[in-house]
Design goal:
Blueprint (H helix, E strand, L loop, with lengths): L6 H13 L10 H14 L12 E6 L5 H16 L3 E6 L2 H13 L1 H8 L4 E4 L6 H9 L6 E6 L35 H6 L4 E5 L7 H7 L6 E5 L12 E5 L1 H6 L5 E7 L7 E6 L4 E8 L2 E8 L4 H5 L9 E5 L2 E4 L4 E3 L9 H23 L6 E5 L12 H18 L5 H8 L11 E4 L9 H11 L2 H4 L8 E4 L12 E6 L9 H5 L23 H7 L1 E7 L5 H11 L8 E2 L1 H5 L5 H13 L3 E4 L4 E4 L3 H7 L1 H7 L3 H7 L10 E3 L6 E3 L2 H14 L2 E6 L4 H13 L8 E9 L4 E10 L6 H18 L3 H10 L3 H5 L1 H23 E6 L19 E3 L6 E3 L13 E3 L2 H9 L3 E2 L2 E8 L5 E3 L2 E3 L3 E6 L5 E9 L9 H21 L5 E7 L4 H8 L5
Helix pairs in contact: 1-3, 1-26, 11-12, 20-22, 25-27, 25-29, 26-29
Length: about 950
């Protein structure tokens, strides 16, 4: 498997290194750690700044983003920078321990090439493993080593690690200890090493018995998790946050599509009673779509629930768990059960196989092996003589496989399917892992378990026929596989297993047969292709009502980021707003038509860009005061238009393409939809350095002081105490600040992919007085100057080379025969849709889909003729990607213009909701300049075949303003 440091993983490590710059590793104290956090929060934005009185450092990372790789990397970095040798990783389950063991082995060569060191690992599983812990991990104090333990290894007095050495086997434990002292236990000798701990999945390691022993270590410990426990061990001392919504918006995990199989004519189920409010909650389904509906007393049940048998029937009152109806009957709260009959299980298996084969055939040609995961009710359903689920799966698999083999298949894929049986004609495509399987006497079972748990690379190989994995929730946190594409629930999960944890087994981005992860960057930032590959299909029965809604709610509750779909009181409270500000802000957003209240789901649905509503109305600035900019930034729109969790039973909004307009638009689309390679001529490096130095040395920054604050959250009262510590002067010329500046420049270089030697060379030639006066401001200015001057140099040397036969992305508008497609899915055009708005007659689509109010105005209000020039057709562009040094760029609109002489011109326009160009973010302005270079190069590539012009349009500019500016002679 190929390992690469991901940018977000590196950012996490850099945050931790910056935090610990002033930490005393020799004499660790919680007060010292708290001071480090206060300094860290002064320079790093963080959604939670709650400080604890413990040694914890918390890292929130979404499942599937590589927590294990990140904390193994952290171990090496702490050794390299701070000379730390001894580490412990605590895990809640043996499956996670096995996963870590596998990861250490898989990454061994990668980390050795990076750090020229091997990490020695020790695992405690039983009494036999204590010898190596004592004689190597404890005695070899200079060895870089990690001890991996489950919580059960230390959470009782009787545990071997907690027994004193006098109880150990003779000769095993011979550490030098004064004879007058009580012999130390193995764990006490481990504590004496002052190891740094890592807690994996902290929400499962919250037991008081474990923490009673763990707290004796009294040194730094890092908690890595996607979920954190409530109350005593809740999230605090947060150093890095990559929550579920952020991970999805940054294309770091798969999207999830939930398929629910319903049975016909099911009676609505009463699932909750709110007697005080005289309301009841029901679940029902209609046209294969599940709904949850709130019904009030005296309301017609049949009309509310679309169930004719209840027409004219009302709820009279409630008593206990019952709702009494006007027809003399009563309904009792339905106790949700996910116990399925054989027919239901067979249907789920059949659907999952259909989805699996559809993906497998498609992904096979791309060198990606597809795996499917099943959660079943009992071990006996897969093992033994009466293993009905296994037998039914094999029956259905053979049946569907035979049908596929009759089709016209790729020869390599056909051969792949022909290897499904062993020499005894036994199917070898499925295997299970269940608790207690370790040490199985059955050789075939034992090999299957080892393959699932330990041999990840072998499991991902096309040479291994196994691709269907069955378990009874044994494969929970700690086990996942990047190539799980289908997850099927044939059984209920334990009460401790959340829906987010369930789907977490398949969230990781997949890898191909070379072990290369299929990231958005790997695919050239092609969003549609990325999600065609990286999609997890979850299949379940309708008996589990509200799975999609509950999963979405869990993701929202565990995230601090804005999801762009809904807005709640909790979202705004997490931004630090008080109750009055939250209430008033929601009302204002509703008044300004950015929100509408969703009665059914009891939340606010976002129907227009919130950040535009905020910046365009003074009322928000008056309400939010000093918090305005922070709140505004938190609602920045994401470029990711896909749904993180979607209901596969509901058809996506589709927008009709006008066929007559599409035919006119075809020539324009085919000419601009070209694949291009970004190239550079020679860059004048020395001239660049001198330009940056001149700008920086001309600064005269005043000396500054730093104001420190201490914040502590009280558990009982649930509020934050803030204590001002006054202004404090620092010696900014000290060695500490020189190291801090260097660390920041390294972080800057890594983040923007700049050569580190080049960045440090610039720093070395710059006047240091500004750094002594105000290091924070000096760093900020230097980084701005580097970006701006580097951009000036690159924009003059950049060029585009076009590949004649290749389009830039999948053709979303025309089919393989060049005929216009009938529909396009709305999310491919924008985040928002106004089905009531009247679009212009020359617009390509029949409905208004947009990302900003300016875009909506363009679609509904622009003129179709300017002087003697007619706009024949125009369209919002569906993902036309232009490569730039700042990732890919996607312009908004394309126009086909024609004058009275019949001369055509193509106009590409970028709409920006700013009043003036200087308001644009730096990288946005840079991308526009690169787009100009792209279209100039494209014009040269096409010669005199057509004329192509590109420009940007600000919020106060009309279309005629823009065209008059760039084409004064022709308009």
């Amino acid at each position: 498997m190929i390992f690469e440091r991901q940018e977000y993983q590196q950012e996490c490590i850099e945050h931790i290194m910056a935090l610990l710059e002033n930490f005393d590793f020799k004499e660790p104290s919680t007060s010292n750690l708290k001071e480090c956090f206060m300094e860290f929060y002064n320079n790093h934005p963080c959604p939670i700044k709650t400080l604890s009185d413990k040694f914890n450092v918390d890292i929130l990372m979404e499942t599937g983003t590589g927590k294990t790789f990140t904390y193994l990397n952290l171990i090496f970095e702490l050794h390299r920078k701070y000379k730390q040798n001894k580490f412990i990783i605590f895990v809640p389950r043996k499956a996670i321990l096995e996963s870590i063991k596998q990861n250490i082995e898989l990454t061994k060569d990668y980390f050795y090439n990076e750090f020229k060191k091997h990490l020695k690992s020790y695992f405690y599983s039983d009494s036999k493993s204590q010898s190596s812990i004592i004689n190597h991990y404890i005695k070899n104090t200079d060895e870089l080593s990690v001890l991996i333990l489950t919580n059960s290894a230390i959470d009782k007095d009787k545990n071997i690690l907690n027994q004193s050495s006098e109880h150990q086997p003779s000769g095993l434990f011979k550490l030098n200890q004064p004879s007058e002292l009580k012999p130390k236990s193995i764990f006490e000798n481990i504590i004496a090493l002052k190891p740094i701990s890592i807690i994996d999945e902290p929400h499962l390691l919250k037991g008081e018995a474990f923490h009673q022993y763990f707290s004796k270590i009294q040194n730094l410990y890092f908690r890595f998790g996607a979920t954190f426990p409530d109350k005593t061990h809740s999230l605090s001392n947060l150093v890095y946050c990559l929550d579920s919504i952020q991970a999805f918006n940054q294309y770091l995990v798969k999207k999830v599509s939930v398929h629910t199989l319903f049975e016909d004519n099911l009676e609505p189920k009463l699932i909750k009673i709110e007697a005080k409010n005289k309301k009841a909650l029901f679940s029902y389904h209609l046209d294969n779509i599940g709904y949850i509906k709130e019904v009030s007393c005296k309301e017609d049940l049949g009309q509310a629930l679309n169930y004719p048998s209840y027409n004219g029937v009302e709820i009279l009152n409630f008593k206990g768990q019952k709702a009494f109806l006007s027809n003399g009957s009563f309904l009792e709260i339905h106790k949700q059960s996910y116990t399925l009959n054989q027919s239901q299980i067979s249907n789920l298996l059949s659907t999952s196989l259909d989805l699996h084969f559809e993906k497998e055939r498609r992904l096979f040609s791309q060198g990606i092996k597809a795996l499917s995961l099943y959660f079943i009710p009992n071990i006996s359903d897969f093992r033994g003589e009466e293993a009905w689920i296994k037998k039914e799966f094999e029956r259905l698999y053979k049946q569907k496989r035979e049908q596929i083999l009759k089709e016209n298949l790729n020869e390599d894929y056909r051969n792949y399917l022909l290897r499904d049986f062993d020499s005894e004609r036994q199917l070898r495509v499925c295997e299970g892992y269940f608790s207690g399987d370790k040490g199985s006497n059955d050789e075939k079972e034992a090999q299957g378990v080892k393959l699932i748990l330990e041999a990840k690379e072998k499991l991902l190989s096309f040479d291994t026929p196994l691709r269907f994995i069955f378990s009874v929730w044994a494969l929970q946190e700690g086990w996942d596989n990047p190539n799980i594409f289908t997850l099927t629930k044939l059984a209920s999960s334990s009460s401790e297993t959340s829906r987010h944890q369930q789907i977490g087994r398949g969230l990781r981005l997949c890898v191909n047969k070379e072990g290369k992860r299929i990231t958005q960057k790997f695919l050239g930032y092609k969003e549609e292709e990325f999600y065609q590959i990286n999609k997890l299909d979850v299949i379940l029965n309708g008996a589990e009502a509200g799975f999609v809604e509950a999963l979405q709610k869990e993701i929202l509750q565990s995230s601090f980021s804005f999801n762009g779909k809904t807005l709640s009181h909790e979202n705004l409270e997490s931004l630090g707003l008080n109750a009055r500000q939250v209430s008033k802000m929601l009302n204002l957003l509703e008044d300004f038509k950015a929100l509408e209240f969703d009665e059914e789901n009891n939340n606010y649905k976002i129907i227009a860009p919130i950040n535009e509503a905020l910046k365009n109305h003074q009322e928000f600035k008056d309400l939010l005061k000093e918090k305005f900019n922070e709140v505004l930034n938190s609602f920045s729109p994401t470029t990711n238009r896909h749904e993180q969790v979607s209901n596969a039973n509901i058809k996506k909004d589709r927008i009709k393409i006008r066929p007559n307009k599409a035919k006119e638009f075809k020539e324009l689309w085919q000419n601009i939809n070209h694949k291009a390679l970004l190239t550079y001529k020679d860059i004048d490096t020395q001239g660049l350095i001198e330009a940056i130095k001149a700008r920086f040395d001309s600064l005269e920054l005043p000396k500054s002081k730093i104001s420190m604050q201490s914040q502590t959250q009280t558990e009982a009262a649930q509020f934050t105490l803030t204590q001002e510590q006054g202004l404090k002067e620092y010696d900014f010329s000290s060695e500490h600040f020189t190291k801090t500046i260097t660390a920041n420049l390294i972080e800057f270089a890594n983040k923007h992919k700049f050569p580190l030697n080049f960045i440090l060379k610039i720093y070395n030639v710059c006047d240091k007085q500004n750094f002594k006066n105000n290091p924070e401001s000096a760093l900020k200015h230097l980084q701005e100057f580097i970006q701006e001057e580097l951009h000036k140099s690159m924009i003059s040397s950049v060029n585009y080379q076009f590949i004649k036969t290749e389009a830039s992305n999948e053709d979303l508008l025309f089919d393989s025969k060049g005929e216009p497609k009938e529909w396009i899915e709305s999310y491919k055009l924008g985040h928002f849709i106004d089905k009531e708005a009247s679009v212009l007659e020359n617009y390509l689509y029949e409905k208004a889909v947009y990302d900003s109010t300016l875009e909506k105005a363009v679609i509904t209000q622009d003129p179709s003729k300017i002087n003697t020039t007619t706009i024949k057709v125009f369209a919002k562009l569906p993902k036309l990607s232009i490569p730039t040094p700042y990732k890919n760029y996607e312009p908004d609109f394309a126009y086909l213009l024609e004058n009275e002489q019949g001369k055509k011109m193509f106009f590409i326009c970028e709409t920006k909701g700013y009043e003036k160009e200087s308001d644009m973010r730096t990288q946005e302005a840079f991308k526009i300049q690169y787009a100009k270079k792209f279209f100039e190069a494209l014009q040269e590539h096409l010669k005199d075949k057509v004329r192509i012009v590109y420009s940007s349009r600000l919020s106060k500019q009309t279309l005629i303003d823009v065209l008059n500016k760039i084409l004064p002679e022709e308009i």
